[in-house]
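Subgroup meeting minutes
Present: P.N., E.W., G.H.
Scribe: E.W.

1. P.N. recapped why we're keeping a running log of single-chain structure predictions: easier to compare across weeks, and new members can see raw inputs and outputs side by side.
2. G.H. added today's entry (442 aa).
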Amino acid sequence: MLDYRFIKENLAEVKKNISDRNMVADADLVVKLFDERTALTTKLQSLQQKRNENAASMKQKLDPETRAKFIEEGKKIKEDVAQAEKELAEIETKLDEAGRQIPNMHHPDTPIGKLDTENLEVKKVGTPRKFGFKPKSHVELGEALDLIDFERGTKVSGPKFYYLKNEAVFLEQALIMYALNILRKHNFTHFITPDIAREEILKGIGFNPRGNESNVYAIEEEGTCLVATAEITLGGFHSGEILDKSALPLFYCGLSHCFRREAGAAGQFSKGLYRVHQFDKVEMFVYCLPEDSDKIHEQLRLIEEEIFTGLGLPFHVVDTCTGDLGAPAYRKWDLEAWMPSRATEEKPDGDYGEVTSTSNCTDYQARRLNVKYHDDDGKNKYVHMLNGTAIAVGRAMLAIMENYQNEDGSITIPEALVPYCGFDKIGPKKDVKSPVYTQAKK
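Output recorded in log:
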C-alpha cells in the first residue's frame, strides 16, 4: 500500500493515478481517516500520560479524601482510555481497508490507457513463420497427437482442467528444467514453494482472497488459499522481517502449481492451454534496495527475453498501460509470443499473446508485508519487491506446438529443449489401438 502521509501530501497526484488506472478508490476517505487516526492517537497518548501521572500520585502519602479523589479520577481515565482505544482500533480497521484500495503510483513513462490494446510495443524479436499449409491450433494438435485430453479433464475436474499425456509430459518437464537452469546461471536461489498460503499473505501481495471478484481458490474455514503464483509464497517468505542490507538484492525463483478461478474469463483466445484453472510456473522474485529496482526490473525482462529467444519463438515486448496494470505494479512489461491460432479476419496469420510479465512493485507490497532492511543511517526502511515469469508452462507449450508444427502433423522440439526431452520430434502414434475405450451407458 502507499504511505498514508504520502497520499495526504500528494492527494491530487494520487487521485489522478487512480483515474489513469481506471480504478475505483477513495483517496479523500483515506486522508479523512488518517487525520482522525492521528487525532485519536494524540488523544490516547494524552490520556495515557494522565493515567501515568494519576498512578504516580497514588504512590504518594495521601489523606483519605485526596486518595479517594485520585481513585475516582483514575477510574474515569481508565474508561476514557478504553473508549479511545476502541475508537482508534475501529478507525485503523477502516483506514487499512480504504488504504488497500489505493493502487501504487505508476512510472512516469507508463503509457496512459484503459485497455491492453493501448499497451506500447517497445521491442520485437524474431519473425513470425509463414506456413505453406493451414496451421492447426494447439488444441487440434494436442488431440491429434494424443498429448492433451481436455474432455476428460472436464469430466474429472471441471472446465479449464486437462490431462497432459505422452510426450507433452516430458515437454512440460523440459520447459521447467530449461528455465531453472537459465536462472541458475544468473545465480538465483531456487525453491519449490507451498501451494497454499495464508490469506494475510495474499492480501499483502495484492490478491483479493475472498468475494466474487477474487481470482483465487479460498479453502473454507482454514483462512488459507491455493496460490495463483509463486509470487505469493516467495513474497511472503520474508514477511515481518528486517533484512541485512549487505545481503541485498536477493534473487529467488520458485516452481509451483498455480490455481486461478479465471472468473469471467472467456473468448475465443482463452480456449485450450491459454487460460486454465491449474498450471505449473517458474517465477522470479527479487528483494532489493529502492535505488536498484528500476535497473533490476530491466534485468528480469532481459532474462525473460533470453528464455524465449533460446526457444526460437517470435515475440514482442510491451510497456503495459495504466489501465492494464495490477494495483501493486509501478511498471510492468509483458512478453507476448506469436500464436498462429489467434488468426482473425484482420490478422489472418495470427497474433501475439501474453506468455510472461515482469513487474516492479516498489515498496507497495513491502509495506503490506512489513519487509524492511536496516540502512546505514540506523533506520529500518522498506525494501522494493519485483516479480517476473520465467516460464508459464501451458502458454509456452502452446506457442511451441503452434510455431513448430509441420505439414505432416508432427511437432519439432526446439533445439534447446531436446537434451531435456530426449527426443526431437512428436509424431502421430502408430502403435496405439483405437478406440481404447467405449463410453459406458447410463
